């Protein structure tokens, strides 16, 4: 199994507004687009993103005018150079982005903004990766042991870092041998035993596989949820869920294909 995190999907109410926001403020470019029956999918990312860097997928469904963010998904994090956090945040403010959590309120370690639909975007300092490239996606989990076991056993991910506070812990996982520039999954566990609502403004994480059919069978052997198998999706992709219900797409990429979409 490849295991590379290919993209994270967000649903948006106004595709043009969202595209303008990400292209203007994060300097993203459109990588590919698919116009379906009643929906549109657009892949975005920095111009000079790493070959295994994760893209942002924006999905707009006709009639989706009231999306609920929920709290089971936390944020995506994007990179800026180590010494440019305050400068980049101020530029976003000057350009009209909502002042959500500034660097000072985060001890100058990071900052947060929100996109037009309320998806939270963390700005993190990194000495690697293209500016504004996706560093990680954070999801909230109800049992840290189960969540870590899911990613390490099912997908053979490595536990690459942790940060523990008095009331919560953050755990980071990535594919074995992943480049620094690849996206990680941040698992956030709150100690108070709370549960979470998925909402519908977040879609899924996507993991690349080498052979969709064979890797799907291997994952079934490892007891993943049989949510949407390859056959039900014309052998183009499949979906499973983690222990808390976050959707995970499995996708086999053809590196020589003209389009990023398998359909």
Structure explained in plain terms:
With 263 residues, the protein is of the alpha/beta class. It is 16% helix and 37% strand. It is built from 4 helices and 14 strands. The strands form 2 sheets. The protein has a 7-stranded mixed sheet with strand order 2-3-4-1-12-14-13. Strands 6-7-5-8-11-10-9 form a 7-stranded mixed sheet. Strand 13 and strand 14 (247-252) form a beta hairpin. The model has no long low-confidence stretch (mean pLDDT 96).
Give me the secondary-structure topology:
Blueprint: E1 5-11, H1 15-25, E2 29-35, E3 39-45, E4 55-61, E5 73-80, H2 85-94, E6 110-114, E7 120-125, E8 134-141, H3 144-154, E9 157-164, E10 168-175, E11 184-190, E12 202-209, H4 212-221, E13 237-241, E14 247-252
Parallel strand pairs: 1-4, 5-7, 8-11, 12-14
Antiparallel strand pairs: 1-12, 2-3, 3-4, 5-8, 6-7, 9-10, 10-11, 13-14
Briefly summarize what is shown:
This protein is of the alpha/beta class and 263 residues long.
């Amino acid at each position: 199994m490849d295991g590379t995190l290919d993209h994270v999907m967000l649903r948006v109410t106004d595709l043009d507004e969202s595209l303008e926001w990400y292209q203007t403020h994060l300097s993203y470019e459109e990588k590919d687009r698919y116009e379906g029956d009643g929906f549109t999918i657009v892949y975005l990312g920095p111009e000079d993103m790493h070959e295994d860097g994760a893209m942002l997928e924006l999905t707009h469904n006709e009639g989706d005018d009231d999306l609920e963010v929920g709290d089971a998904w936390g944020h995506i994090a994007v990179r800026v150079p180590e010494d440019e956090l305050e400068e980049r945040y101020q530029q976003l403010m000057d350009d009209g982005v909502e002042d959500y959590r500034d660097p000072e309120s985060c001890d100058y370690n990071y900052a947060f903004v929100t996109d037009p639909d309320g998806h939270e975007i963390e700005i993190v300092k990194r000495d690697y990766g293209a500016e504004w490239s996706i560093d990680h996606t954070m999801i909230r989990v109800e049992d840290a042991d189960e969540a870590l076991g899911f990613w390490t056993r099912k997908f053979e991910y490595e536990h690459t870092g942790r940060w523990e506070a008095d009331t919560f812990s953050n755990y980071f996982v990535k594919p074995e041998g992943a480049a620094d520039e690849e996206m990680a999954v941040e698992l956030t566990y709150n100690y108070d035993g709370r549960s979470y609502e998925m909402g519908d403004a977040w879609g899924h994480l996507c993991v690349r596989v080498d052979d969709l059919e064979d890797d799907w069978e291997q994952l079934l052997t490892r007891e993943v949820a049989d949510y949407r198998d390859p056959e039900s999706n014309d052998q183009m992709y499949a979906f499973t869920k983690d222990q808390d219900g976050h959707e995970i797409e499995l996708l086999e990429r053809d590196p020589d294909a003209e389009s990023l979409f398998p359909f």
